[in-house]
Amino acid sequence: MTGPVLDVDQVAARLRISRWKVYDLIRSRELASFKVGRLRRISEAAVHDYISHRTEQEAA
């Protein structure tokens, strides 16, 4: 994995969505994440993959 690891609030701020929507994306497996103890973490690469996938979907 490359790049920093983000928490749910940081991802929500970057995507300008609610933290609950981030959890929805994680639950639906649209956004990859992992747990460190009880904390949910998302890699920057996973955020970029999500954005790329959505962009491709919208272009089709």
Describe this structure in words.
By secondary structure, the chain is an alpha+beta fold. The protein has one domain (5-59). 55% of the residues lie in helices and 18% in strands. It contains 3 helices and 3 strands; from the N terminus they run βααββα. It has helices at residues 8-15, 19-27, 44-59, and strands at residues 5-7, 34-36, 39-43. The protein has a 3-stranded antiparallel β-sheet. A hairpin with a 2-residue loop joins strand 2 and strand 3. The radius of gyration is 11 Å and the shape is globular. The chain starts with a strand and ends with a helix.
Report helical residue fraction.
Answer: 55-70%
Number of individual domains = 1
Helix-strand pattern = EHHEEH
Radius of gyration, in Å, reads 11 Å
Q: Calculate the mean pLDDT score and round it.
A: 95
The DSSP helix count reads 3
Helix and strand composition category:
alpha+beta
Tell me the distance between the termini: 29 Å
Q: What's the overall geometry?
A: globular
Domain Helix-turn-helix: 5-53
InterPro entries: HTH_17 (IPR041657), SinI_DNA-bd (IPR010093)
Protein name: Helix-turn-helix domain-containing protein
Organism: Streptomyces monticola
